[in-house]
Automatic annotation (TrEMBL):
It comes from Streptomyces cinereospinus. Pfam families: DUF4191. The chain crosses the membrane at residues 33-53, 59-78. Coiled coil: none annotated. The lineage of its organism: Bacteria, Bacillati, Actinomycetota, Actinomycetes, Kitasatosporales. InterPro entries: DUF4191 (IPR025445). Residues 219-233 have a biased composition (Low complexity). It comes from the Bacteria. This is DUF4191 domain-containing protein. Keywords: Membrane, Transmembrane, Transmembrane helix. Residues 210-233 are annotated as: Disordered. The keyword Membrane applies.
Length: 233
């Protein structure tokens, strides 16, 4: 017990620091975050306290209201922090790869399976919905990358459904903040063993970026493909 208590005490400052950093990051993009969180907490607590006075149990409802106020504030904070994070990532090359990397269990993702010198890039995700190709970049240019990747995969996984999504804000594209939700809504057509077999066949096929070191998450603006680098066929 003596060893666990110091470990727990050491973890708490780390969590508090992380929350503080997240709040600062969110506040840079969402100036009203403090007022919104305060309003949510006060209104939630006030409503339950008022109900408590009406039914003659202000202490019990006050305690319940306080707990629910913390919960409501945490939920709102989490959503607005997520929105702020997506807002900062929007438009950065590689942002979609960061989202795919955190899509959840049941998906296997491979970033940058195809790329051109203009930083248009295609990522691949495999799950029970089949294969999902996620492109980011100029919508007109990425279509040729998607078509080339589909032709390449068709040699080894012709029996697996393939979906393609283009990340962006224009017509026919999916906003970065909606990418995960859109993928999770795709109909599930494969079993677990089929997903594994599909991944094995795709790995055996290889990918264009397997020999190029890429940073995780969004890539720096201005980064260019080196001359003589891999191209989509």
């Amino acid at each position: 017990m003596a060893r666990k208590e110091p470990a727990a005490d050491a973890a708490n400052p780390g969590r508090l620091k992380q929350i503080a950093l997240t709040y600062k990051m969110t506040r840079r993009a969402d100036k009203k975050i403090g007022l919104v969180l305060a309003a949510v907490g006060i209104v939630t607590f006030g409503v339950f306290l008022a109900i408590g006075f009406l039914i003659g149990h202000p202490i019990y409802l006050g305690i319940l209201g306080l707990l629910l106020a913390f919960l409501a504030t945490a939920i709102v904070f989490g959503r607005r922090a997520e929105r702020a994070a997506f807002g900062q990532m929007e438009g950065q090359p590689g942002a979609a790869a960061a989202v795919l990397d955190n899509i959840g269990r049941g998906w296997s993702t491979t970033p940058a399976v195809a790329m051109n010198r203009s930083q248009d890039v295609v990522h691949r995700a495999v799950g029970k919905a089949g294969i999902v190709l996620v492109a980011e970049g100029n919508p007109n240019r990425v279509k040729s990358l998607l078509a080339a990747e589909k032709r390449k995969m068709n040699r080894v996984v012709a029996d697996v459904p393939v979906h393609d999504l283009i990340v962006g804000t224009g017509e026919g594209t999916v906003e970065l903040k909606k990418l995960r939700t859109t993928m999770l809504k795709l109909p599930r057509v494969l079993t677990g063993p089929q997903v594994t077999a599909t991944n094995d066949r795709l790995r055996a096929m290889g990918d264009l970026m397997s020999n190029m070191p890429l940073p995780k998450g969004p890539m720096p603006k201005g980064m260019r493909m080196p001359k003589g680098g891999p191209r989509a066929r």
